Amino acid sequence: MSHLDQPVVITCALTGVLTDPTQHRVPVTAAEMAAAAAEARDAGATIVHCHYRQQSPGMGRFPTWDPDVVAEIDAAIRARVPDMIINMSTGVVGLDVSAPLACLSRIRPEMAALNAGSLNYLRARSSGQWAWPPMLFDNPVDKVEKFIAAMRATGTVPECECFDTGIVRSIGLFQQVGLLTGPIHVSLVMGVASGMPCKPEWLPLIVAELPQGAHFQTIGIGQREVWPLHRRAAELGGHLRTGIEDTFYLPDGTKTDSNGRLVEALVKVAREVGRDIATAAQAREIVGVLPGPHGPTSL
Hints:
By secondary structure, the protein is of the alpha/beta class. 34% of the residues lie in helices and 15% in strands. An eight-stranded parallel β-barrel has the order 1-2-3-4-7-8-9-10, surrounded by six helices. A two-stranded antiparallel sheet has the order 5-6. The protein is globular.
């Protein structure tokens, strides 16, 4: 079966990293994350990509790597939507990966993000000033190796996040030297100002650089421009991701009030180009995970 014949796996990125919940409606608590996951499931998503936030009052815009908090949120999602695949974020700046590794070991997610290369994470304002101090999102090979080893130990499928074309091409090299084995899953992150642009015409060239047989999805960062990108990805046999981590805007330019409305819009895009939407069982088969001993060993 070619990828074009496969049903589309829809991922919902529930919350993101630093969005202030007092300014935008993003889920933070375990109950809110579980409710958002259920809403995404009901709209057609079968995977939830999870970041985790501090739970103290007034601190919900900041991330946490506290294994107890992560396990509490993970357990709440699994209790509410047991068929969904959990995809855990692992992104940290710097070479100390002990905190995300502790969370991986604790909740044993079916999937986890594997940031596959480094990027100068930049954005400039119209005033000519940096939007934030220039930051290196550093993911050297030895850091990548530590995450891959941990994911093998927990039975977690890596989702290779690629922010630039050189990172995309590195995936084949990781496979060539034996770091990545089995089905390859690649997320093309497009729309970061210093990475790949959110332009549909780039997709055929980028997809051609993927290892043979690799699955891919688009992560479109932006506003209305993300929707033509997703449509082209669906036409090329890709899988699709949306959620308020990636965009607040629906195809007509209005601001969404929920993850569910974004997923509904993405399902419509996939169906308009003739693709079916994967069920939970089909998504597990495509990703390469089956129901098993995932989830926290204790809370």
